[in-house]
Design a protein that fits this description.
The protein is an alpha/beta fold. 21% of the residues lie in helices and 55% in strands. Strands 1-2-3-4 form a 4-stranded parallel sheet, covered by helices on one side. The longest helix has 18 residues.
Length: 86
Amino acid sequence: MIGKGGIARGEIYAQKLIVSGKFIGTSESKTIEIMSHGRFEGMILTEELVIERKGTFIGESKNGNQTKLLDESKKLDDASKKIAGK
């Protein structure tokens, strides 16, 4: 859970993610809830997405049955970092 005043960045893997604050990144969770005044910016991979009134989602969402897409995205990101010499 990301509380009202909380800010988190990165990747979150969980059964259930509740966002009341701000999250920037990627989450693969069975259920994701963006609460009123919560903000999610990034990529969501979930079976169930709930956005309450006045909650904000900016990004891309995929059905949780497509977990291979997230794995492929990571592989492409790692490959591009190697090519760039990072």
